[in-house]
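Appendix B. Chain record.
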Amino acid sequence: PERVKIDDWFTQYYKDEDGRVICFDQIPITPSGIGYSYDTETQYIKIKDNVGIYFYNTQKGTHNLYWDNGRYLYSLTGSCSKNKLVRMAESVELNEDFEEELIEMIKNEEISR
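Structure tokens predicted for this chain:
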């Protein structure tokens, strides 16, 4: 059977009770890695069985967390605390059913990439 390559970047925005916005990204892993153009110190953090990279962006005033599960690269960015981002990251689970449904929808041209 023909496989459909899914290489879309998924972004979801959340707003907490105080109106602060948090951005969640799911990104297929590529050899390009993670880059940022400002001076900052990074910190390695364990997310479940994976290693994440945390940094605070002083220019934007945001906390940033990147991690992967061997298949996708994820990120959370927001004005909330580092600990809150880590708790959110630990709650993320891969939804295999959704990915299969998405592949079928693309194959059936119900949605475009």
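Further analysis of this model is presented in Appendix C.
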